[in-house]
Amino acid sequence: MRYFFLYAITGLALLSCAGQSESPDARAVRLGRQVRCPVCRGVSIAESPSALAQEMMGLVRGKIAEGRSDAEILNFFEERYGQWALLKPRAEGMNLVVWILPVLMVIGGAVVIIIRTGRSRGVKEERS
Amino acid sequence: MKKGLIFLAILLPSLGVLYFGMTRDPRLLPSTLVGRPAPDFQLTSLDGKTTRLHDLKGRPVIVNFWATWCNTCLAEHQLMRQSVERYASSGVLFYSVLYSDTPANAKNFVSRYGDAAPILLDPDLHTSIDYGVSGVPETFFVDREGMIRYKQAGMMTPSLLAEQIDLLTEGGARP
Question: What is the β-pairing status of strands B50-52 and B119-121?
Answer without folding.
Answer: unpaired
